[in-house]
Amino acid sequence: MKRSAAQWIVKYRIVILIVMALITVWSAGSIGKTKINYDLTRYLSEDTMTRRALKVMEEEFGSNEQLRVMFADLDEQQLAGYLSALNERPEILAARHDPETDVALRDGKLYQLVNLTLTDCDAVAMVRELRTMFPEAGKYYVGGSAANQLDVQNSVGEEMPLVMVISLAVVIAVLLLTSHAWLEPVVLLLVFAVSIVINLGTHFLFPDVSFITFAVSAILQLALSIDYAIMLLHTYHDCRDEGVTPQEAMISALSQCFMRVASSAFTTVAGLLSLLFMSFTIGFDIGLALSKGIVISTLSVFLLMPAVTLLFEKPLQMTRHKPLSLGGEHLAGAVCRMRKPVAVLFILLIAAGAVLQGLTAYTFTDGSAKGETQEINSLFGASAPLALLIPGGSEDADYDTQRILVEKLKALETEDRSVIRDISAMVTTGAEALKYYTAEDVAKLTGISAPLVSLFFRMQGFDESVRADRLLAAAGSLDMGGESIEPLRAALDQANAAFHGKRYDRMLLELAIPVTDKNLIPSVQRILSTVKEVYGEDFYMTGVPMSTYDIGNAFRSDLLKVNLITFLAILLIVTLSFRSFRLPLLLVFVIEGAIWITMGLSCAFGQPIFFISYLICVSIQMGATIDYGILLSDQYLTLRKENLPAPDALSTAMKRSLPTILTSGIILITAGFIIGQKCTVFYIADIGALLSRGALISVLLMLSLLPALLILCDRWITRKIRKRDDRSRVS
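Now predict its structure.
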């Protein structure tokens, strides 16, 4: 069946080439249709506090976005003018400046901070407008989560093309060093350019893709699947060296590589698809998009690669050269001689990695800031806002309950420091609207005679004093207005818009704890418990600290799930591929050991791991780098079936496998390293750095521990082969 499929592919290669070209052109035109999502809270489960709170927030207030604007060396009149201009904007609910706390001095300059609460508007568009709104102010800064999002968008757009160019240069250099013909890199990159364009062009089939997925999918698709094409091309050259025709050589190469490439692709896809089971659904986004890329790459290798290779047959043969000797047989000999010490050493390292991995700390948000947000944070500290929605009410008892909650929240401490830096609420920022006024106070404020105001109080049913908001609601009947009362009316309107919803009132909390602090999650838990003491279960809270808390909880449930599904799926696939349970156990042990060492090193170096980096790298390391072990083990078993002694079989298998393993491994290591070094976006850079380290450790173990275990466990893993040989001799 494999040979029949190969014959069909070779026979209709020109038709396949035309169809693939048409699909590529269509895909290239579709890349711009992809909607990119920069909001990671979108991937939280619907039952998390963050998602429930965002839904209620949208219904009650329409927005939870806050920005910060930092000016330098403004006099009081200029600052007041800017505050007035900001408050007049319909997109801005409130612009606030506290002359006591929102000032800082550095290098002889006085910096003033203005805090903005936005209405239901496009916050990113508002950031763009704010950055050009006051040209006469000189250099000033606009920061906040929306500003950071805009800076991330700009960084991804500027940095990823450079990362791709550098990675391609490295890929070409590696391919040239390990190639059988100088034209090989052209053939390989042509095939993968097509598969990458098709993958990017079909992203629009999803509702949207995360910016992390969109940024890394192309380079990871190349790094994860290029070994499939290398296997096929090198096998084709070996078949050509036997003197057969190009078409027959390709049919033979396809027949030999179907199982190897399919097994490698299935394990990679299985690792990635395990991310689909995460409750934090960015795993679904990344897993599905990258899996699609691997499937497209595999189909391109099976369908397009034969057509392109045969099209370039003559130039390929003309540029043939002796492959660089990588010394696989010498490495095999050294491992064979030192197999026991090598096995003991690496098993001890794996045990240490397993222990350290259990102690590794994880981080759930990007604690760094970019651009102008970073400048503001350096002077005024990072902003960690929370929006708290509590049952609404306008009676004194309702406000007394709010005051009780404010006092309890202000009293929260962790490690001898306050948890809450600032609270904006009706009873704090809007307290002016809740003051009580006597008839005499109103008379002084408005200039109306005291007897007339007293009569007005009696007519309205007021007691000796009345709260400001109720006074203003009835002020029309007394024609109470003018310059003296308008500031109070404006303060009330602003406070109502900021803090009063249809059913819930809003409090804006500013935490004194950075989002990367180890005390953040316990502090959020204490805030939740404190609010629950006062209001029971009827409240909602959202913001970066809250989403960090929810993501942390989701990760802990996802961790075991993803690891277990990945392990079992790959073990099953490898078992079915080898039709044996023994060798797959060795392979999975080696790759799991590589993962433990990779993650254990983070603990040893005191580096917390970003949780998305962990899940992605585990799935890729388990699913993709096990390909190297499949290739080496398959070659070894094939040679052992030919009755070659174990040391000789290992030597030949290492010699044949080393070029593919090193080529693919170096590309994956280098691609991850370049992403980690050249990308300033934390989420993307951390994935690259961890993936690079993991790929390096996987390659080292596959070229040292696995060969040692193959020799040490030879009698165990070749038991079926020996039984079959014994039956053959008896018959």
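DSSP finds 29 helices and 17 strands in the chain.
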